[in-house]
Amino acid sequence: MPASAGTTECPVDRLQNIETFVRVAQTQSFAEAARQLRVAKSVVTTRIKQLEEYLGGPLFHRSTRVVRLSELGQAFLRDCTDLVGRANDIVDQMRDVRGKPAGTLRVHALTGFVLGHFGSLLRDFQETYPEIRLEVVVSDAVVDPVQAGVDCALQIFPAASTELISRPLFPVRRVFCATPEYLARHAPPQDPRDLHHHKLGLYSGYPTRDRWTFYREEGELTTYLSAALLTNSVHLLREYALEHAGIVCLPTLVAGGDIGAGRLQVVLPKCQLSSFRLSAVYAGTSRNAFKLRLFMEHVANAFGQVPPWDAALVARGILPAELVEASPGDRPAHG
């Protein structure tokens, strides 16, 4: 479309304005887009106005509470998303050709993954790429990386929208476990249905809710379990178990060290639960696509298909070598 009279916008400014448009469309907020782009809200407003003048029509319908795409904005968004993602990738790659990757990479990560496993990974990554500054937000909340203003979210939950990309990094196993002291006072379960006779600590975010399926040599068994403690924190479940309070279900990335040291003991070792995948969820338009790809490859290579906390338990015969993968319908949808 032709530019309106008096427009002096250069191609570089236009690309910057397009990136701003994509960020406003993704966040549905001028203020949040400004925060993520680290500019004043007035700058975002000016960039959108310049782009609308160039295109000859409004890109958004705005009110005091809602920012939504106009018909023109909807038609414009898809191509702009691809353009911004490709442009950012090219710029990052050219920086790498001329020197070392540099800048800030923002990551949201699950508490269970970070505590005990993330420090050495970050150290090794920054030894390889010393010019990359990392900002890591840690919580058990499920976030949309665009809305949260991060380059990626490391989580076992699927992407919140079809506009986000999810790259699997490594498997996450789950086991039922308790302290030897608890099991000395209470008869250890020999069958999944025996769990009904114990105080249970369970994670609240699984979509199957109270329904649990166990995979055994004699076939699958599904039962409904009621929790004495239901929580969205796997670390609280770990503490609950270490207080000899009951049997809990934990991911091995949280419980592996305690199991290896004998502080926790796997119950029902011949009954497997399905495994999930820890994935990096990110927008295709990430401004740091190249640095993000380096980071994701580093995580995947560090832990591989059999993470070290699982490999140690497999080697000791505590876990079977094979995995039971969660079906799409069993993957958690919220935290």
Structural features, described:
By secondary structure, the chain is of the alpha/beta class. It has three domains: 11-95, Arc Repressor Mutant, subunit A; 100-170 and 276-304, Periplasmic binding protein-like II (D-Maltodextrin-Binding Protein, domain 2), CATH 3.40.190; 174-267, D-Maltodextrin-Binding Protein, domain 2, CATH 3.40.190.290. The protein has twelve helices and 14 strands. It has a five-stranded mixed beta sheet with strand order 4-3-5-14-6. Strands 11-8-12-7-13 form a five-stranded mixed beta sheet. A two-stranded antiparallel sheet has the order 1-2. A hairpin with a 2-residue loop joins strand 9 (211-216) and strand 10 (219-224). It starts with 10 loop residues before the first helix and ends in a 20-residue tail after the last helix.
